[in-house]
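Exercise 3.2. Students should predict the tertiary structure of the chain below and write it as structure tokens, then compare their answer with the key that follows.

Predict this chain's 3D structure.
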Amino acid sequence: MRSTGLLASDLLGGFECASQKRRDGIRLDIQASTGHDRHALADYRLLQSHGMMACRDGLRWHRIEARPRRYDWSEVIPMLAAAEASGMQVIWDLLHYGLPNGLDIWSRDFVERFAAFAGAAAQIVKDNSSRVPWYTPINEISFWSWCGGDTGGINPFMRGRGPALKLQLVRAAIAATAAIRTVDPRARIACAEPLIHILPNAPTEVAIVRARQHNAAQFEAIDMLLGKQAPELGGDAGMIDLIGLNFYYNNQWIDEGRTVFLGDWLYRPLADLLVDAAARYEHPLYIAETGTEGVFRPDWLRHICDQVRDARGRGIAVEGICLYPVLSHLGWDDSRLCQNGLFDAHAPDAPRTPFVPLAAEVRAQAARFAAEVPAAAGVIAPE
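Answer key:
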């Protein structure tokens, strides 16, 4: 079993597009700091030379709407042209943590302005692309609500308000999806939510129930979008076309304790987690983000590919794997050189120097996927 053909390739590349303000007021803009916003065509073709015909990328709301309800698409149109010229299938993030200056995330204005922006973005994409468009309205609602609403790690730097922030982000994602589909009914929506596994910290009923509740909570945002929880928000079963799950080396841990790494006897195989996720939903899945830093990058990718093949062998429709990020970049908080990409890109005009072992593994895995059994007849083919 391969996939149902929703995505143009089994391996995708992810361009980091985080653009939030740090606590010190400095605005991150990873697309700018890596130069991807100016070198999109070359970057897309570089991915394609490694067998990646699809990618995740982003439209930066804070730059497009620098003034309320006034849009500047001058930096977007060249990226759309690059995708069109290269034939790259792009899943566009519309909100990757970065709000326009002065916009209160808790306000009704946030929801209304984001929906208006999403509709306007859908019109620009429709006018400048011949492909069926893909969007992720809000990246990692669950992580954002936890990190920004419970731990104070990112904007809005709150504690004890994670559930309220999750509701607000879901509300905005639903409004944005409705706006997108009003403009372009062809549009398809993919979410991107963390896939985690938490183990109890003691062999007691209280600890076991607590860990079970944590594991269930990771699906709340998806359930809300699909109308399974908080139906008053307006979610429904058609809100998502593709469920994206983000999985990294540190996505398993003991409750209030240590990380459980690959190789630990407590570690749960990714294939098993995918089987569990598929049992909750009738939607196809994909790995929306995965990767690691340093010399183990090719080993991690090989492991993830093997796990996806395992899940597919059990009948799970896993559409693809997005290596994230594909461009190494500066650290969010300390500007260190993160060696986490397929190519180095620590400055806007830096050469795209490949990490050779990972590049070889990407090409090998892409060729292996391409040689495997094609999608069954009658399913959706790539646009």
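Discussion points: The first helix runs from residue 30 to 34. The radius of gyration is 20 Å.
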